Amino acid sequence: MLSQKTKYALRAVLYLSIESDPKIGLKGGKDVSEALKMPTAYTGKILQDLARVNVITSLKGPGGGFYVSEENTKEPLLNIVEAMGDLPFFSLCGLGLSQCSDDQPCPIHNIFKGCRDELLKWFQNKTIADLGDDLIKRELYLVV
């Protein structure tokens, strides 16, 4: 399972992808946390971490904040997972066993590994723009 931090990061990036516009105004961490009902300080830290690795863009100073640039929209969702430190999820045992492998499989190894590998491919191939476009078309929602 992806961590709560990664889930918050995914939600925040998708929110920024449809709600932020550097020409109109940027979103601060408090704006994002209120809109998505996430803890304010935690959201701010997540946004700073994402900006540090160029998944989102930030501007400092009065009127500053966070937004998703055209370049950011090309980022695969896996970069968000990686920035939050959850890449190991895609290689861990579904039952949390340390010795689980193809040679020594746990009872759910084969099915879990297949699902996990498909999810990894999805995160590698889907971009911020892909999901942002789906949100705008109202095919997907960020309902809390």
Which secondary structure elements does this structure contain, and how are they paired or packed?
Elements: H1 4-19, H2 29-36, H3 40-52, E1 57-59, E2 65-67, H4 77-83, H5 109-125, H6 128-136
Antiparallel strand pairs: 1-2
Helix pairs in contact: 1-3, 1-4, 1-6, 2-3, 4-5
CATH class descriptor of the domain at 4-88 and 127-136: Mainly Alpha
What is the string of helix and strand elements? Answer: HHHEEHHH
At the fourth CATH level, what is the homologous superfamily of the domain at 4-88 and 127-136?
A: Winged helix-like DNA-binding domain superfamily/Winged helix DNA-binding domain
C-alpha termini separation: 19 Å
Largest sheet: 2 strands, antiparallel
How would you characterize the overall build of this protein?
This protein is mainly α and about 140 residues long. It has a domain at about 5-90 and about 125-135: Arc Repressor Mutant, subunit A. The chain is built from six helices and two strands, in the order H-H-H-E-E-H-H-H. It has helices at about 5-20, 30-35, 40-50, 75-85, 110-125, 130-135, and strands at about 55-60, 65. A two-stranded antiparallel sheet has the order 1-2. A hairpin with a 5-residue loop joins strand 1 (about 55-60) and strand 2 (about 65). Helix 1 (about 5-20) crosses helix 4 (about 75-85). It is elongated and about 55 Å long. The two termini are about 20 Å apart. The relative contact order is 0.17. The model has no long low-confidence stretch (mean pLDDT about 90).
